[in-house]
Amino acid sequence: MAQEKCAIPKNVTELIRNTPLVYLNSVVDGCVARVAAKLEMMEPCCSVKDRIGYSMIQDAEAKGLIKPGEIHYETTGPEIWKGSGGKVDALVSGMVLEEQLQVQEGTLKNKTLTLRSAFLYGVEPVESAVLSGGKPGPHKIQGMGAGFVLGVLDTNLLDEVVQISSDEAIETAKLLALKEGRELGISSGAAATAAIKIAKRPENAGKLIVVVFASFGERYLSSALFDSLKKEVENMTFEP
């Protein structure tokens, strides 16, 4: 029996896109809407920032600053639309640089999402809620809450900004690892917290809410995300 041939990528950039969309099942008690997560931590470098670098290269190619390549970029918005079967009612994303660039360019609210009147929710730290008119401040949610509004962000595209505390983000990230088997970063924990809160609103019963999980949790081993585990290990008693 002849073996089926698999297409081999020409280079790693061909792997940047088409990350999976999966449903959350074990951390959504009390929700009346479904919550699906866009796993950007499954990009080649385990981060949503893979798309940033790729976008910068494409922009330079378009401006003639570097030689154009032979690769095609499938944007996040169309991927989510395709992955959900065109049934997205809301998108929840942390306000990191990559999302801001995408909001500006309309890729998170592309024409298909807009035709469905999908809501776009931004997420920011409650301790540094500048998008909500607050003052910048220190927080523990790495990857969002820069303390100022970047010029590339078109806030008119945001239907609502949800504020999440550092403690909430960290606890949800832990629950996602424990109950969903998803080891994620703190910003993903913040986005998930917001998505779950939105999914509990009565008006969202039966709807599909997609949340972007931006990065893998391994790079946060030295952060506050693993403080409790570190203390637990430090207090362990060695038995010969």
Helix content: 25-40%
Low-confidence blocks of residues: 97-106
**Bulk shape:** globular
Number of helices: 7
CATH domain class: Alpha Beta
Radius of gyration: 19 Å
- Find the CATH topology: Rossmann fold
Beta-strand percentage?
A: 5-15%
Give me the secondary-structure category: alpha/beta
Strand order of the largest sheet: 1-2-6-3-4-5
What's the total number of strands? 6
Level-2 CATH architecture: 3-Layer(aba) Sandwich
Main beta-sheet strand count, sense and barrel state: 6 strands, mixed
State mean pLDDT (0 to 100 scale): 80
Order of helices and strands: EEHHEHHEEHHEH
Total number of distinct structural domains: 1
Explain the overall architecture.
By secondary structure, this protein is an alpha/beta fold. The chain has a single domain, classed as Rossmann fold, CATH 3.40.50. The chain is built from 7 helices and 6 strands, in the order ββααβααββααβα. It has helices spanning 49-62, 76-83, 97-105, 111-115, 166-179, 186-199, 227-234, and strands spanning 21-23, 34-39, 90-94, 119-125, 160-164, 208-213. A 6-stranded mixed beta sheet has the order 1-2-6-3-4-5. The longest helix has 14 residues, at 49-62. The radius of gyration is 19 Å and the shape is globular. 36% of the residues are buried.
